[in-house]
Amino acid sequence: MPRCPVCDAQVFLRSTAERPATPTAPFCSDRCKTIDLGRWLEESYTVP
């Protein structure tokens, strides 16, 4: 099961009868998506 790279919550890529797909995949929420963008803009991440 894929996990959010920011908070490690489960992310659902496909919908099933029990639950819908996560619309912000690969992140669990808009909040985590924004946090990740901020980290890139602050140059907290680097490409090896």
Alpha carbon gyration radius:
12 Å
Largest sheet: none
Q: What's the name of the CATH homologous superfamily? A: Erythroid Transcription Factor GATA-1, subunit A
* First and last CA, distance: 26 Å
* Overall tally of domains: 1
Order of helices and strands: H
Name the overall outline.
elongated
CATH topology: Erythroid Transcription Factor GATA-1, Chain A
Q: For this structure, what is the CATH class?
A: Alpha Beta
Count of helix runs: 1
The chain-level structural class is mainly alpha
- Give the low-pLDDT segments: none
Mean pLDDT: 93
Please estimate the helix content. 25-40%
CATH architecture: 2-Layer Sandwich
Strand content: under 5%
Provide a quick synopsis of the model.
With 48 residues, the protein is mainly alpha-helical. The chain has one helix at residues 30-41.
Structure, explained:
- By secondary structure, the chain is mainly alpha-helical.
- 25% of the residues lie in helices and 0% in strands.
- The chain has one helix spanning 30-41.
- The mean pLDDT is 93.
